[in-house]
């Protein structure tokens, strides 16, 4: 789920509380192991994607546009155009969740990207235009207006080299969150998840839609299903060494069987506000459908975790500049210099390394 920071009494917080935040801590009984050091797995540098929902969708865009040469694709659920908030909490609330102040201007955001590009703070145009992209929005979304998903799709159509690189999906009866199709042998009851139309709860929505599989099949069309049928392992790792404001102490990584041998791709998966492990247990890191696709296609899934704080009470990713705005008039949260962007890219680099750094 997506909301803002600075104060728990903000309009966004009130809106989301009224939407019904019921935390299903019993939705997943399994727990990952005690935190370890994030492993070096010699992961591929050519088969990587970044995906996210709501605030995580905005952050996924920030990573992909800052470092397009490091990703082959980006998937965005329930979010709007890249750069939308422009470092402003007011714009985040009034143009990037609701559109009370009018729609965000794509030409203004193009100028923002061009300024960053001229300063070397985002990837070059050719790399950006080569990305594959998947955009999904629920028509019944009451948290991030569906028109913002339309504007994101239009922004990407203007940027990508070919229309065939973009897939846009909409679900008429679906609210705010990440739709899932629970497997027949799931130990989680649909009632433990968010309601498909209403959203709410975990914001992992019991909609009988395998959005994760559809999205990753689109972002990685070259990948074929492997013959491995063994389930991988979800590991908790210490995020402290990737120091950045707003990161939780512990993150998660899903490692399919055989990926310890190297050359698996990586998908960075970013939760929305009130969707971290602190809020909903391991529902997001286990139930989105990403892990099942990862087992079938030999893809590591990295689940970094944001934390709740006074500056960020809903545990959102930094898509409006809270991690830097206390010391920077024009926060660079959506550039290569952004605190959280830098930390997340360091996690990806660790998975791609062949050995741990010397202490």
Automatic annotation (TrEMBL):
Domain of life the protein comes from: Bacteria
Native source species: Halomonas llamarensis
InterPro entries xref list: AB_hydrolase_fold, Esterase-like, Plant_Biomass_Hydrol_Est
The protein's name in its UniProt record: PHB depolymerase family esterase
PANTHER family xrefs: FERULOYL ESTERASE (PTHR43037:SF5), UNNAMED PRODUCT-RELATED (PTHR43037)
Pfam families for the chain: Esterase (PF00756)
N-terminal signal peptide: 1-29
Sorted UniProt keywords: Hydrolase, Signal
